[in-house]
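TICKET: design request
STATUS: open
ATTACHED STRUCTURE:
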């Protein structure tokens, strides 16, 4: 049964900083871990309704800005430019989505469609930062690089306040960091320091040999040699402990410790071996980058990784959902929407079948949407950046099922009810992870920082 949720969700003002920092790693990885700061901020699971349901959080990041009018916010009665494709019915009576998303239509009862996300940043880098950190960028509408004073990726912050169990990394990025030319803005440890950088897999999950080579010791480096090198490193470091060692050295030690732990973790190494999956399962997800990366994400959830970002960017390029030019509808129809449809539907259904969906929060969306009108310049023909109103799909981890939250106007240009800022989404993610979004977190210098500026979207929660 369709329910349009209503609530008193307000947007709030606050101070913002930018996020990002490059850090070296192991092979093609960027590593993050080390001794976590023990900070206030984590709350008991029963302290707030729905708090702590999400053991894992998965950001399916559709970089570039997917159009709301061709995904989750159909306007069959709207202006012609806002309805170039047709809606189809879903598994929830009254909810319709794009005709090129038939598999997602069949699993619409598993989540909530949010149709009223809104902010004011039109630049890819700054808007991506806002989406992944839950803070507006201090330089609106700019594509500026990351800095050490940025706010951290939400997964990095959660890794501090809710450390990961065992030897798995607290935050892992599958498919590569988005916008490496801007130092992976929004995808670093920011003011927490290099020790809390998300671990990044730059290789294609479709190539299992490539992934396993990164996670497995070479034949000439057996485990006992790794242990020996670790002891040798410890001996050398002990000789300089009386020196004035700065925090960069402390971060490097944390990275080394993280690398050792991960290389020693059989569970994590095994998670990267997609060859262990039956062929029918790999086919179900789709034999393309997003499909196999989401299959890897499911295996990482099973391994206990708390936060996973799946970057939907094509191998060797990044202009994926950035639909400015050419016949954008052929691109949507032939690859973008079918790949999104097959892989995300398979991921959600697989999590449900394995009993993992209730404890896994899934967010499907991009940094903004697209204009409801077409740019008809002679050399163009697409939709431009549009952060004023766009859509996302939320599922699992304490999210209501089979519902819609918020609405847009007749053209899907502006919210008509219940506007939601990215920082409100961030607050909701933290809350579902068992962390009080109104709390504080300490930066690498020990100074307290506000964790989030948003408000929890209680009306989308179970």
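STATUS: resolved
RESOLUTION: sequence designed for all positions
ATTACHED SEQUENCE:
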């Amino acid at each position: 049964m369709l329910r349009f949720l209503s609530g008193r969700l307000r947007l709030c003002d606050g101070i913002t900083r930018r996020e990002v920092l490059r850090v070296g790693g192991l092979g093609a990885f960027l590593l993050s871990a080390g001794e976590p700061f023990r900070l206030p901020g984590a709350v008991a699971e029963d302290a707030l309704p729905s708090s702590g349901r999400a053991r894992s959080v998965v950001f399916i990041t559709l970089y570039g800005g997917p159009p709301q009018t061709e995904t989750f916010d159909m306007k069959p009665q709207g202006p012609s430019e806002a309805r170039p494709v047709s809606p189809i019915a879903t598994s929830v009576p009254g909810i319709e989505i794009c005709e090129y998303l038939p598999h997602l239509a069949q699993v619409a009862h598993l989540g909530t469609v949010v149709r009223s996300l809104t902010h004011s940043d039109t630049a890819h880098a700054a808007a991506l930062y806002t989406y992944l950190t839950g803070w507006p960028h201090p330089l609106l509408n700019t594509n500026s690089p990351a800095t050490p004073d940025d706010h951290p990726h939400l997964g990095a912050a959660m890794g501090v306040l809710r450390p990961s169990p065992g030897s798995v990394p607290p935050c892992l990025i599958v498919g590569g960091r988005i916008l490496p030319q801007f130092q992976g803005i929004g995808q670093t440890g920011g003011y927490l320091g290099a020790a809390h950088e998300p671990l990044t897999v730059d290789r294609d999950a479709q190539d299992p040999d490539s992934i396993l080579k990164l996670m497995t010791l070479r034949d000439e480096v057996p485990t006992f040699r790794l242990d020996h090198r670790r002891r040798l490193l410890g001996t050398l470091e002990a000789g300089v402990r009386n020196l004035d060692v700065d925090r960069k050295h402390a971060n490097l030690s944390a990275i080394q410790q993280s690398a050792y732990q991960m290389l020693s973790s059989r569970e994590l190494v095994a998670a990267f071996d997609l060859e262990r999956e039956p062929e029918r399962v790999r086919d179900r997800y789709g034999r393309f980058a997003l499909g196999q990366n989401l299959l890897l994400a499911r295996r990482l959830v099973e391994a206990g990784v708390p936060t996973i970002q799946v970057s939907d960017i094509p191998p060797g390029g990044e202009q994926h959902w950035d639909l400015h030019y050419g016949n954008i509808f052929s691109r949507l129809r032939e690859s973008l929407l079918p790949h999104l449809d097959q892989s995300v539907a398979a991921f959600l259904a697989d999590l449900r079948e394995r009993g993992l969906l209730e404890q896994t929060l899934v967010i499907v969306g991009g940094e903004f949407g697209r204009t409801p009108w077409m740019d008809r310049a002679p050399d163009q023909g697409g939709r431009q950046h549009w952060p004023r109103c766009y859509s996302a799909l939320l599922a699992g981890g304490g999210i209501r099922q089979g519902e819609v939250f918020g609405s847009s106007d007749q053209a899907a240009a502006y919210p008509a009810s219940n506007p939601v800022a990215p920082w409100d989404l961030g607050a909701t993610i933290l809350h579902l992870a068992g962390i009080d979004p109104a709390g504080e977190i300490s930066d690498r210098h020990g100074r307290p920082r506000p964790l989030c500026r948003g408000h929890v979207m209680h009306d989308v929660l179970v």
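CLOSING REMARK: The radius of gyration is 21 Å. The chain has eleven helices and 17 strands.
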